[in-house]
Fold these 4 entries.
Entry 1:
Amino acid sequence: MKGIQELISHIDLEREVVIQAHDFPDHDAVGTAYALSRLLAANRISSRLCYGGEIQSESLAEMIRILEIPITACGEAGLDDDAQIIIVDGFVGNTNIRGVPGEVVGVVDHHVPPTEPNCKYFDIRPHMGACSTILYEYYKISTTEMEPNVATGLLIGLMMDTAFMTRGVAPVDLEAFSSLFFTGDWQTGSRLLKNSLSLADLSVFREAINACIVATDFCFVPVTKECTPEVMALVADFFLGLREIHFVVVLEPEREEYRISVRSEDNSRPTDVIIKKALDGIGSGGGHVHMGGGSIPRDLFPGEEVLRKRFLRAMGKG
Ligand SMILES: [Mn+2]
């Protein structure tokens, strides 16, 4: 059985342990990283928390403040080559993990990996709605009492990734939810998640509503304004909320690449499969059945209309 004791058996106690959330982390990644560091602490192993890129989400920044999570950017952490890295909610083969010094000893994740991780310990459970649920199980199996702040962080991660328990939910996610709900502070958690937009984001929505192209139940939404992954995800969720729409692609330009955020309400069109087909040869991406994302380097970007048609073809419609 995978769990904290097996992970610990692979850790060299003489060397530093660093828990790394994926680049431009989300609530699930930070909540999981924090829970893991506290669980290691309960086993008398100290660790540091870091992330690649930057925190782009205001609500995540507030979660970190309120829960007093001691996480810093990898660049500021001053990691040395000797560090033992545990990656959560993402995988080293994945493009959203930045190459940091140190040895990757562990991966705890709920995304389908592109290849099997090449490290001492990995626990990857793609059927789970959130990485937070995996940490819930680690606490449960090891019968470790969970601090309220840890529970709140995991609850936020779980609610975020499952869109308040309506997306990709496994039975164990429900078990985790009902336990974390009473151990943690669900009011704070839901307030943070339900106020993640600001007036400044309205311009992106305005543009998206004007630019969207609908073909039967597929909505393609090219925006030209740069926005955070979180706002992109909320734009995608907004369009998925339209009764006629069952598949959404939001396209957004960044400095060096185009990013896409994808949502599906149709199990026969899982986002990870459709993204891989549509971006074949021009970009990369992945995700789960109901939510996914990807990126296309600028020099390979085929143009909005060609990209839209690639998605139509990937869905067998064109
Ligand atoms: Mn996640």
Entry 2:
Amino acid sequence: MKNLKGKNAIITGASKGIGKAIAVRLAQNGINLVLAARTQSTLDETVKEIERKSKVKVFGISCDVSRMSDLENLVKVSLEKLGKIDILINNAGVSSQYPFDKQPLEDIERLAHTNYLGYVRLTRLVIGHMIKNEAGAIINMVSGSVLVEPVPRNFLVYSSLKVGLRAFSKGLFWEMRDHGIKVTAIMPGVADTDLTGKLKEITSEQKKRLISSQTIEDAVIFALTVPQNVCPLELAVINQQTPWAKPVIPFKQEHPE
Ligand SMILES: NC(=O)c1ccc[n+]([C@@H]2O[C@H](COP(=O)([O-])OP(=O)(O)OC[C@H]3O[C@@H](n4cnc5c(N)ncnc54)[C@H](OP(=O)(O)O)[C@@H]3O)[C@@H](O)[C@H]2O)c1
């Protein structure tokens, strides 16, 4: 897409963190937006903030990506509001850190339904529309944790689902390229968002190992603006100081008893 102005995008997990940063940046580039997240109030605040800063159309649709009916509604409302979907950014995700033997089954299922099925199902719902248009860009927010082999301890389920998502994204590209659809997996290093627990106890040395959400926005803009015959299949954006043998930031997650 040479010119992003007037294009239409759906972004999931767009009320906070990385998704919000991408939404603000796409709006600055003239892209109309449907933003999805579960909590309507934070979504509304994000919509207002974007409306204050940009002239694009922007709508906030409450949607739990782990629920099929919510995803169907998201696509239906997006088509009603925007008429066409050019870009899908699958970003909504939850983090969970557990030794595997202590991880509740409900937590495993929540991760699978949100971080993997949420992406695959929404893509399935949108793909027919993109095929009909013979154009489209799908960006999946994977994770830098997939670059570590074996996947990090205590992040086994989260990271292995992201490995699956990476494989899905690459395979989807091969299958969709003759339809003019581009698929990009972005694999960011650790960024300071709600997902990483705000990293309260972080030392100044550890802080140097984070990346800013701007780096991820830049990767999204790059993926959307490369020449027509190019697809950035995978973009790993990690901190220069990423230590491979141990966690970037050893943060602890509180769990309800
Ligand atoms: N932060 C990092 O260091 C990092 C690194 C690598 C990859 N990532 C990936 O980047 C993505 C975004 O992470 P983030 O750090 O920006 O997270 P975040 O700050 O916690 O924001 C998550 C966003 O997703 C929404 N969300 C969560 N569960 C949802 C659900 N079931 N349905 C719809 N929306 C949902 C949240 O809103 P509601 O709670 O209101 O639904 C919020 O808008 C995730 O896929 C994550 O795995 C993050």
Entry 3:
Amino acid sequence: MEAMKAEVFTIEDLRRWRRLEPPALLGVMGDPVAHSLSPQMHNPALAACGIGGQYVRLHVRPEEFREALGALQRLGFAGVNCTIPHKFAALEAVGELDPAARRLGAVNTVIFREDGTTLGRNSDGPGFLRTVAEEFGRPVRELRILILGAGGGAGQAAAVQCAMEGCRSLVLTNRTSAKVEQVAAGLEGLPGAGVVSTVAWEAEALREVLPEIDLIVNGTSLGMKAEDPALLPEGSLESRHLVYDMVYKPLETPLVAAARAAGARAINGLPMLLWQGVQSFEWWFGRTAPVEVMRRGLQEATGWR
Ligand SMILES: NC(=O)c1ccc[n+]([C@@H]2O[C@H](COP(=O)([O-])OP(=O)(O)OC[C@H]3O[C@@H](n4cnc5c(N)ncnc54)[C@H](OP(=O)(O)O)[C@@H]3O)[C@@H](O)[C@H]2O)c1
């Protein structure tokens, strides 16, 4: 099998795997997976660190997940990332589970240890904290945070991480309110649980809370389509706001554009992708990741500056 020809590998490929050159060492399992930008970030990092291996995309269907995980371990992979829809199956499939991943309810990084055991972790949470610290220069625990779409997968993970870290205040909202109420109830017992509140998914409710917010996080998929409605009421953004949009297609989302027009600092979802990748790399190899090499890989793949 030629690594470069077959850009995306399948379970069939794993069953009759022959050695690639450079050997496959890491990968991402997803369904779909062809769009994943992780190879463009991890392959330059492996090269920069002198690690002779490559990071590949693996198209694995839900019913193939356990077999694929076993195959990767047998083939000598160091680890694998799990993306939609495998983050929950991975939680059940690993031998050992990191307590933070258990709390986040999902595994996106599997580490195959030399003694044959597997450890499941979640780099989305720590990646979220590092994104805020590195891109805005502020630790989450100092901030009053609003999460839009806190009932979705990414928004919920951010909410759990903020509550684990103990931020100053945490306001959650979601179009389907039952989901966000459930997320808020699930934060019970975490250091930040006492500062959590929910608000209605309505312009006036958001206008009211925004003066008391430092960091606005968009965890919804709004902004990906040109016809999507605006996330925040007009004129409600201030220059002191920090805006973190998890969406990165388009690179300048309407929320990022609105924030910049208001003089606020804003980032799209690529720094989040970067910092979770940095975290996974550091777990796999127990060394500092070459962050700028990884950032450049993403920039070259997307045109992001
Ligand atoms: N940058 C990164 O590394 C990264 C990582 C993960 C995800 N993301 C991005 O984050 C976004 C959410 O992903 P996910 O995996 O969390 O998806 P998800 O679990 O399907 O959640 C989608 C969220 O968007 C909300 N939503 C969808 N359409 C809406 C609308 N018309 N009006 C209001 N709210 C709406 C949903 O609200 P309801 O609950 O009411 O349906 C829910 O809160 C996606 O854009 C994804 O690309 C980025």
Entry 4:
Amino acid sequence: MIYVGLGQDSHRFEPEDSIKPLILGGTHIPGYPGLQGNSDADVILHAVTNAISGVTAMNILGAVSDRMCLEEGLTDSSNYLREAMNHLGRRRPVHLSLSLECARPKLAPHMTAIRTNLSRLLDLDPGHIGMTATTGEGLTSFGRGEGIFCTAVLTVSED
Ligand SMILES: [Zn+2]
């Protein structure tokens, strides 16, 4: 049995002088302001978490993550992803496809680190994690550098 989950997320950048770090896919990207949100606002991990919820029909981002963030102080978004994974049961991720739209940061130098981290979080071979990025020719606020948009498609199998 094969399941496919679709997730997406977007966040706006903090002001340029913000000291909040930019975290993408659990990786610190130096040289840019962070993203707005109560948590680390990791737009990649949020899109992947939503894709897992697309399979499990158990939504984590929202009420559950707000409780974890605001009441338990868990701002690292990998906690939300792990919580979503807990509902997969005997199903296992077998492939992840990520598509980002942004003008900044330049992602190419960080893709290996991001894919390695996602591989660890999802227990998935890095070779089964595809990741593309586009500026969309600057047609949207993401392409103009105001924030980052991420779409995730997760394929999960059950033996
Ligand atoms: Zn988010």
